[in-house]
Give the backbone structure.
Amino acid sequence: MSRRKPLSSVNPVIYRTSVFLRRQLRRFEWYLGREKYANYRSPDTLPETVVTHRSILMRKLAGTDEILQKNKVTSLKTAAALIDGVVINPGEVFSFWRLVGKPVERRGFLPGLQLSFGELVSMTGGGLCQFSNLLHWMILQTPLDVTERHRHSFDPFPDYRRTVPFGTGATVFYNYLDFMFKNNTPWRFQVKTWVDEQNLQGEILCEQNLPRRFSVEERHHRFIRINGTVFRENELWRIESDSVTSETVAEELLMKNCAEVRYDVTEIPGICIIESD
């Protein structure tokens, strides 16, 4: 049974009004709320590396315009320069959109692919979700607390050179679908981001060596077919260990994922689908 689309997705006037109101509400939260947002980008790099990650820039997406993927790379470079070096002091909140700002062409952002109501469309700044995905994956491996994160309710693309578990994405849409995390620790952290020839690169650094290390483990991953529809499921667990002894001190269930698959799983070698009544 197909899901009904929200009225705003089929009526352009209602859609534009809804977007305008949500963006205004977010601005009120930024400037009149109680949170203190990180906005200082230091030219100096904090000494201790907590986690690093990289994400391939050009992916194999059937039926998509390669120019839009190249445009995405330009937009990612622009965003990386706006975030690189930001320091998150104790008590401060990192907001992706407050740092990046509105993704318009006069600021260096170009049309790229964006998922909108389950369909791929061309939109200025499209593809920036790759940036928020990278940030979210890194933050899960730190003691920092994710305070806002959104994700698609379906699995849109098959894995292509994916190095992170399914279900770790963080979609963003200016400015009311944001990715934010808060520093509730006593230490300063820093985000470093840049783009090289093949990858979007990221690092989370700290002013001192942390007493605990964090890693994320995928469990119970499977594809299951229910009433003709294929779903993808897994669990993500965060493992906390002692930095000196490497002994596990805690395990935490971060999330259970279940999403409808929007591509043909049967064409992918090695995937087994569990049939369910």
